[in-house]
């Protein structure tokens, strides 16, 4: 991923310490890709052999966890920080983007803009398409359930890929995906067409020749349910301006989950210094921890707050503006 503009309000670190933190390594990423890839492939294979049976459901759960890992792997490789060798970053971002129904160049453009315009209601592509729905805490139970289900995310990514394959001219690109730079559109378009063609081939051949293939496909909605629960915590309910740390939440959670998700729960450190490889994020987090503004003890704490916002509005019809921030004092996630 190309260099991202530095946040002038980020914490200061000694140059030598920052250089040490940003040193790339192949080993940690290869271990994670190996473990998660094995879980995905083995789980999916067993699920096709025992579709609908108890052992098949266990295998499907394992495959879904492995597929979930493709998202942070794509993210880290998209930043070119997953590995020291560029070819490994390219290989992983390409394969994982395919598994996530995206073209790798589309993800990079989308994510690069997210870093530049985090929580900007007009320009952050994570919320700009429907800021009333995607920015701020969910305003009712239906919205909350839709967000955590992850199915809008799954469908949206597929539709993005279809749209990028078919957009006819510059005006259409400007309207649909203004964050994709003009000199990148051709690559995004042909990568999206290749992604569509490969997926169509896999689906046709798999459904025709592999018993249990349709059952194994459930790994995608299941993994996106987990992804929906995970992603809601990163920026939901936080301000639309200020420094990156003012707009980003760190979720402490537990060590196994942080490892599986490539240390991305420590999201404040990543947004403050996006060129830092995932294996150095815990150390970076420790260095800048006093400067973090939004810290949640875990995902349950964030979802507890989201649920209280959603049901409070639904039950008492409070003003939506009264519940767009972390205004429940018992959640204790702010640090200033």
Note down, in words, how this protein is organized.
The chain has 336 residues and is mainly α. It has one domain (15-331). The protein is built from 17 helices and two strands. The model is unreliable at 313-332 (pLDDT under 50).
**Main sheet: which strands, in order across?**
1-2
Order of helices and strands: HHHHHHHHHHHHHEHHHEH
Strand content: under 5%
| Distance from first to last alpha carbon | 31 Å
> What's the total number of strands?
2
Structural key phrases:
336 residues, mainly alpha, two-stranded parallel ribbon, 17 helices, 60% helix, globular
What does this entry show, briefly?
The protein is mainly α. The protein is built from 17 helices and 2 strands. The protein has a two-stranded parallel ribbon with strand order 1-2.
């Amino acid at each position: 991923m190309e260099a991202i503009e530095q946040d002038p309000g980020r914490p200061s670190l000694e140059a030598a310490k920052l250089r040490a933190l940003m040193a790339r390594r192949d080993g940690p990423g290869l271990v994670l890709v190996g473990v998660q890839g094995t879980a995905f492939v083995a789980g999916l294979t067993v699920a096709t052999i025992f579709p609908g049976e108890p052992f098949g459901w266990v295998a499907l759960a394992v495959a879904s966890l492995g597929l979930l890992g493709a998202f942070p792997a794509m993210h880290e490789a998209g930043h070119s920080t997953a590995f020291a060798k560029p070819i490994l970053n390219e290989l992983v971002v390409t394969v994982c983007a395919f598994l996530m129904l995206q073209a790798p160049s589309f993800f990079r453009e989308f994510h690069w803009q997210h870093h530049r315009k985090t929580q900007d209601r007009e320009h952050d592509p994570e919320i700009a398409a429907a800021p009333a729905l995607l920015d701020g805490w969910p305003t009712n139970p239906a919205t909350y359930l839709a967000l955590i289900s992850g199915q809008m995310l799954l469908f949206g990514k597929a539709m993005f890929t279809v749209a990028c394959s078919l957009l006819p001219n510059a005006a259409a690109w400007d309207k649909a995906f203004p964050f994709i730079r003009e000199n990148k559109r051709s690559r995004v378009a042909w990568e999206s067409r290749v992604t569509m063609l490969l997926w169509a081939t896999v689906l046709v051949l798999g459904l025709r020749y592999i018993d249990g293939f349709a059952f194994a496909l459930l790994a995608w909605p299941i993994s996106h349910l987990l992804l929906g629960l995970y992603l809601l915590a990163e920026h939901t309910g936080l301000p639309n301006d200020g420094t990156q740390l003012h707009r980003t939440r760190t979720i402490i959670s537990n060590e196994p989950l942080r490892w599986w998700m490539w240390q991305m729960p420590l999201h404040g450190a990543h947004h403050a210094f996006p060129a830092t490889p995932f294996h150095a994020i815990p150390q970076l987090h420790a260095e800048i921890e006093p400067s973090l503004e939004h810290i949640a003890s875990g995902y349950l704490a964030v979802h507890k707050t989201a649920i209280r916002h959603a049901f409070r509005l639904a039950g008492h019809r409070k003003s939506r503006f009264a519940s767009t921030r972390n205004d429940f004092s018992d959640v204790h996630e702010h640090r200033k």
